[in-house]
Amino acid sequence: ATPTTDTFDLNDPSQRELKMIVEECRKVDLPSDEVMRDAVDRLRRGVEVWLNGTAEAPFLYDAKWGGLVSCGCAYDNGTCTNVLPDCPSFSDPGLNFGNGFFNDHHFHYGYHIYAAAVVANFDLNFGRKYFEPVLAMIRDIANPSTNDPYFPEFRQKDWYLGSSWASGIATLGGQPYLNGRNQESSSESIAAYEAISLYGAVMVHAWGDGVSSDVKENNNAKTATRVRDMGRLLTATEIRSAARYWHVLHGDVNTRPIYPKIYKPSAVGMMWDTMAQFQTWFGSAAYLAYGIQLIPLTSVSERRDSLNWAQQMYPSYAESCESDPNCAVQGWSVAQLAMLATVGHPKWAMETAESLPLSVFESAGGNGHSLTNTLWYIATRRAVAEPLVLKKAKIVPVPSSTKEKKETKVTISS
Known about the structure:
It is an enzyme of class 3 (hydrolase). Helices cover 43% and strands 7% of the residues.
């Protein structure tokens, strides 16, 4: 079934797998044309409901704050019990991650924009048909115009820091958060801007590469070019700032440290205006703070995660993950395996990934990947001249409630 109630649902296993794998499969002799058409059709349906207004909790325009927000769903027995104009997201800041209060918009809409780019790459008519609705999402999170009367300029971006803020207008007891704005996942922020650049690139081609005989198409191609270039700038600055503020390197003589020596972790889980925390909104385990900086696994992740940082953070990540079965059950070991491949052990990571129960890829931390996407990422890591020295594999039982065909999970520590 195509999820149509939560703006974050497009990050489910089937959608994530399709978005990342369709293009790769097209380049080899694996799927037939029929299989390819079916894959694109499925993804098209998942994207289109959000663009044509048929989602159960559709997007609406908030004229007061100038942005797109989801109506939201009040769930009862797994179904949406409300219909427009009854929109619970406008009164509940905890619903849908606070989308109605402008929380996490770039995280959520980045997945939609990425998916739209993939469909448009295979279906130019789809891209042209929904150009304006997708641009509305882009304008919501990364509007470059000071003259746009409908959306503010760069809602999320802090150009002084180079990074973004995820928090919206939600308050704590009716008062602003004392620590100011915050952002948890630097990696999802990067992925959102990567999506914008990819969408712009695809749509330049969809509108005839600027050499059409149609004036309107050429104007749209110019707009798409600006979207592409803006996305590249946003992505590059976000990567640079993530490396500076979220990826903590100890003993790096080439970088002036900004955290005191007493701060031992190799990452920041939550960044605030006035504070850096090694935790997340949903827990304080080390594997959560590391894992949230590593999802989703896309092409830009290779540029995002330096080898130096991966080698420093991996021991702590692995130790935390193998000491708590919930790391595997909740899917956070998927990103750990991606890092294992990054530090020089792709074969080991591949074998371990194939031993994971499929339920791992339907869990909170793993449902943005899928097994296929994970294997793709592991298989495409660069060779490392001096792989990180590791101990032997440690077998950690998977709780019976998550067992399928696999009886154990293998984790690797340094």
